[in-house]
Structures are given as C-alpha cells and as structure tokens.
Amino acid sequence: MISFVPYASFRFFIVAGILMIPIIVSGLIGKRMRLYNDFVTVVMIFLIFYGQPAQFVSIIIFVLWQTGLVKGYLELRKRNNRSVYFYVATALAVFPLFIVKLSADVPALNFFGFLGISYVSFRTIEMIMDIRDGLIKSVSVAEFLRFVLFFPTISSGPIDRYSRFKKDQAVVPTRKEYKELLYLGLNKIFLGFLYKYIIGYLVHEYWMGSSMMNGNSLFSIWMYMYAYSMYLFFDFAGYSQFAIGLSYLMGIRTPENFNKPFLSRNIKDFWNRWHMSLSFWFRDFIYMRFVYTMIKKKRLKNRYLISDLGLALNFMIMGFWHGFLLQYIIYGIYHAVVFISFNRFEQFNKKHSIWSKDNRWVHALSVLITFHVICFSFLIFSGRLNFLW
Amino acid sequence: MKTPKIGPMILAVIIVSSLIFMPLSVESMTISQSEVYKASSTLDPNIFQGILMQRKMLENKQYLPIYGSSELHRLDMYHPTNYFQINPDGFTPFLIGRAGMYSLVQFLNLASNADLLKNRKIVFIISPEWFSNTGLSESYFAGNFSEEQVYQFIFSHDINPGLKQKVAKRLLQFNFVRHNGTIAPLLEKIAKSAHISNFTLFSASLQGHFTSKVLQLYDAIKMQKVTPNYYPSQYQSPNKKLKGKSWSQLEEMAVKDMKATSNSNRFHINNAFYIKQIKNRLEHFKNYDVHQKFGHSPEYGDLQLVIDLLKEEHAKVLFISLPFNGSWYDYAGVSQQKRETCYHKIVSEVHKGGFQLADFTQFDNKPYFLEDTMHVGPEGWVYIDRAIRNFYNEKS
C-alpha cells in the first residue's frame, strides 16, 4: 500500500503543498476559508490512514469515544464538580492509549491503535483537565474535531493546548501577519529538510551505520551514544519544524518543541529546551497538579519531599508513556533521579556556593556535563543497552 | 518582522532538483573507471539492481559482460575472472548474476541499457534448473527485482513495442508487480490488458518519472563504492600456475583437483558440501524432484524475451548451456529423457534466434564439469574459458 506517513515522503509534501495553495492565497488576502480548511483536514486524515484499514477504524472509534467523553464530562461538570467524575473521565480518556501501550507486551491487543494516538490523547486529556479547572466552559463538536484532528501535528506533536488553538482558529491573521507566518512557516519547513533529511540522514547512515558501532565494546557503545543522540535530535527537531511550519501556513501558531537542548546548563534547563511541548504538558498536568493537590490536602508537610515525589511521578509516567518497555521505564527513573539530585545540589549550592554561575568556564563545564548526562539517558532510551538486562 | 529572504529557499529547491533531475549521462560520469574495474568481479547486487555501473561497463569495450546466476560466485582459480587475469586476452570479464537471476531478471538488466547493446559482445549462461514447472518464482523475482530498471524499461523508446507488450504482460503475472500502485498501471497500459483511466495514467507516469530519477540518484551514490559479495570460501585468488598452459593441460589439472575433493560419493559432488548437506538426508532426496517435467516451463518464454531483445538490438551473444548433474538427477527422479528434452529446447530456441551456443550438455552424464548438483566447478570453467576466448577473438 502507498505510504502516506506525514513528512516521510515526497508524495506527502507534494500533495500537502498542492492542497495548501488555496489556503496560502486566501491567507495572503487576509481571509480564511474555513470550509476548505476542514476539507483539507478530512482529505489528509483520509490519505494518512486509508492504507491501513485497522488504523482508519481505530481513529474513528477513538474520535467518537473522546468526543462523547469530553462533551459528557463537560455536561456533568456544569451540574456538579465532583472529583470522582473527573477521575473517571480522565481514566476513560487515557484508556485507549493504555491499550495501545500495553500491546507492546500483549500482542493480542495489536488490533487497535493508529499513528499518533500518543499525541492526540494529550489533546483530549488536557481538555478534561481544563474543564475540571473551569478554564473551558463550552466546546462545540466542530471546534473539538478541528483541534483533535489538526493534521500537521497529528503524528508526533508538538502538543498544542485547546484554548490557545481555539484563539488562533477564531482570529484570522491580517495580510501582514499572514505574510510573516508564511515566511516563517516556509523557513521552518526548509530547516526541517536540513535537519531531518540531510543532517539526520547522514548521521544515521554514516555514523550510526558505520562498522565502528558493531560489537559491545565500551568504545563502540560510547560512540553510538553520541551518534544516536544527534540522530534523535535532528530527526525529531526536523519533524517538529515541518509540523510547526505547516501549522503556520494554516494560520496556527503551534508551539515550539526544541530550543538548542544540547546547550542546556543543567537538567532543569534541559527539560525547558527539549521536547518542550511534552515536558510542559507533563509539568502542568502531572507535576503541578500533584504538588498542588498535596499541598491543598495537607497530606505532606515537607515541600521538598512533595516536589521530589512529583518529579518521580512525572518522569515515571513519561517513561511509561514512551512504551511499556524496560528501556523506557529505566529512562524515566534515570531522569527522575537526575532531576531530584540536581534540585538537592542546587539547594546545597545556595548555602555553600561551591559552583559559581557567572563564570563562563564553569558554564562551559556545566554544559559539557549536562550533555553527557542527557546523552547517556538517550543511550538507555535507544535500547542499545538492552543486552545488559 | 525579519526581512524575508526567499533566495536561500529557492536556491535549495534548485540544488535538490538539479541533483534529482541530473541526466543519466552526468550521473554515470561520477563513477570512476577504477570503480568499474573493481565492480567487474565484486558481484555486488547493487550493480545488478542498478543501471549506471552496467552502463559505464557496456560503454567500455575492455569489459566482456557475463550474465548468469549463482555459478558466477564459484570464484575458483579457473573461473573466467581469475583465468583471464593470469592469461590476459585483451578483455576483463564483468560478472552480472546471483542466485535467482533467471532470464526475466536478466532481461531487465539488458533492457535498461538497450541502446548500448548494438554490436556489443556479451556472454549469457543458461542453467537448466531454471526450466522448472513454475520457472521464476515470485520470491526469487521479488528478491532480484529492480524498480529502477523497470521504470527504465517502461519509459524506454529503444525497445520494440511488440516485445514491450509481451514483457509487460509477463511482468504483470507476478503478484507483487500487480500490487505496485505506480508500476502496475503503467505496465497495464503497455500490455494493453486493462483499461486505465487517463488520470491514473497521468499520475502514475508523473510519479514513475520522479521515482525513477530518485532511484537513479541513489544508484549513482551506491556505485561510488562497491563491495564484494561472495563467501570467502568460494573464492580463490588468481593462480600463476595456470599461466601459459594448454587447454588439455588445464583440463587435466582441473580434473585432478576435482577428483581429490569429490571422492566421497557416486554423484561426484564436492565432499564438504556432500557431507554437510546431503549425506545424512540422502533418503530424503530420492525422487524428490520427480514431479518436475522440465519440458514445459514459463522460463522458455522468458528466455525467448531475452533472445528477442538481443536480436532486435543486434548484440553479439555467446549463449552457454550448462548441463544437469546427470547421476544426481537420476537419483532425484528427473530422467535422462526429461533432461534431454530440456537441452534440445534450449538449443533450438537459441539457434532459431540466430545466436551462437556453447553447448556443454554432453557433460550431463560425465563427472567433474559441475562441482555439486548444479554449479560449475574447475573443469567446467576450463571449458567455458575456452569458449569465451574463442568467441571474443572471432572477427565480428
């Protein structure tokens, strides 16, 4: 069957490019043709999934399920803000994703799932959380579908937020604004080509694929660690550039995903620069909620302990989210441990000032250390160390 | 707002397009002559999957291409590649073939560069095992199928439409070809076997041209560095002791080598191979091929396609017909009569096409030409070297 994975073939770019022409033209005269935009979404979703009937059916069931859930919970919430409704709704929203992740261990569950379910699930879970907090008061089915099925980011994000997305949908950019969006969007798409199909490809082909990487010697694994980290970044950052660029062409300012992550000076800094839309999502909806609930309910007194537990939970769930495989779970634990240790160190440093922040040599050293700590986590993530366990 | 800089984006589009749409002739210029020389004996499958290296080779009269199948990998010291290095005769054999490369696969190889075949001397080795009831199997074809070559065939103007139609029909008999959304409609059109809407045809042809150019670019990149693809155990280096020997001396040497290594069994199969693969399962092989007729096979039609193409393009061809290992096939249930039918059909097909045939099928019931059930061994190569040498030195 002809593959139509987003941003994976010339075919995708050519078809998307042609469908974009009317959108660009109307954007340049300061208009937006909603009906045509919706038409493009339907066509693209169809093309992406029709090759795999199982995925096609899965996404339809998924969308129906989530629509019912969001609309249903919204109605309940209006009448009564009971916690139990919220927890049940969240659990039900996570359920399809849980099934898909479980299928990594239980092959019998393979019948369900589609490309991008991990990312699309975030969109609806976030909506339920915002409904609970009273930030979303009404949702029309059309708005919901536009958000959930927004095709430029359907396969791997970046993860947008409903209220932000809705604002971009409602406000049509002026000619001048659209011109800028168009320019930035195209620029991003070209940058995506450079990242994913030139740098990422070359790293994959000639660095990761070189014979130097064979065998399990310390040296080959060490080299693989750098190669894989570079590949992961350029491949994913390239993809993100495509997704954001295409969003811009549609007048939607999808948030950024990366901000020079390998120049981070510590692990906290790293998670503000790496896969940002994901880490911010986790920060807002797992870590913050956990900390907030703990403080409000006064279950624990020690706020450092609360924070540490929040971080542990945060990164554990992130690990599981990547897949129910040992390498991802260890990756999650590793980041939790590193993050918590760093927090402790920072507290210690505040008192004793052993690590100056303004010295540029210290800064360089911090970047170097952080870089290696991160690359090692990607090595775990890559599965290259799976022979150890 | 930053001042828009459209220039770099346009430049990027131009650079990428010119890389992709670079003409074949420019792409082939990127391959060095030393790489062609290396490629002549590497048996790197990327060479047979591509067009460019073969193009470069056909353009250079120094090379004599030998099209064949798995026997080409038996690179002992008598193998043409080694023999003609020790006893040079003005040409270098260029090997094109591996297991499963039956006539239809070789057809696509030859058709991809049909414009270079005129008056070109080439050697084509036919194995009788190809002519089984089913001929080229789906899996063998899929494993040796080159999309790049098929597009080249589809868009070629160098091949007669009648022949093109026949080949397209034949290709469409394979499931994986029929299921290729771009190739199938283009072939259907050539085969005139189904009605294809203009839109489908247009989009398939657009996509086909584009894919074809992308594949050629990959081809050019891969051909910058070819790598050997044979087992070290099947390789001997050229040996000086073959220098200046007469054909009968060489034959004597080869038979002596063979005798010592194939004395463990009555089929004169190489001892190591026999002990590892056959000895313990000998009973299993009794009559195991009895259902094979070898008289009717799609392969006869496929060979005819090759002959038609070579005739049309006025190539100068030496066909070589290899024997079965008679004593082994007697045991496997393929009678002498069946084998003779196969041999005769090959002879008549090649002769009808007006081509020369070096027929070695009289070695069917004589030992040592083959080194196992089907692959040419030292003595076989000596005879083949001799046939090739005579063919090459003929006044054309």
UniProtKB/TrEMBL annotation, chain A:
Q: Does the keyword ATP-binding apply?
A: no
Q: What is this protein identified as?
A: Teichoic acid D-alanyltransferase
> Which pathway does UniProt place it in?
Cell wall biogenesis; lipoteichoic acid biosynthesis
Entry's family note: Belongs to the membrane-bound acyltransferase family.
Q: Which GO terms describe its cellular component?
A: plasma membrane
The function of this protein is:
O-acyltransferase that catalyzes D-alanylation of both teichoic acid and lipoteichoic acid (LTA). D-alanylation of LTA plays an important role in modulating the properties of the cell wall in Gram-positive bacteria, influencing the net charge of the cell wall. Catalyzes D-alanylation from DltC carrier protein.
Which PANTHER family does this one have? Answer: ACYLTRANSFERASE (PTHR13285), TEICHOIC ACID D-ALANYLTRANSFERASE (PTHR13285:SF23)
Membrane topology type, per the record? Multi-pass membrane protein
User: Which Gene Ontology molecular function entries are recorded, alphabetically?
Assistant: acyltransferase activity
UniProtKB/TrEMBL annotation, chain B:
**Swiss-Prot/TrEMBL GO biological process terms:** lipoteichoic acid biosynthetic process
Which of UniProt's keywords are assigned here?
Answer: Cell membrane, Membrane
The metabolic or biological pathway listed in the UniProt record of this protein is: Cell wall biogenesis; lipoteichoic acid biosynthesis
Identify the GO cellular component terms for this protein.
Answer: plasma membrane
> Record keywords: Membrane included?
yes
Q: Which family does it belong to?
A: Belongs to the DltD family.
What is this protein's record name? Protein DltD
Q: What is the lineage of its organism?
A: Bacteria, Bacillati, Bacillota, Bacilli, Bacillales
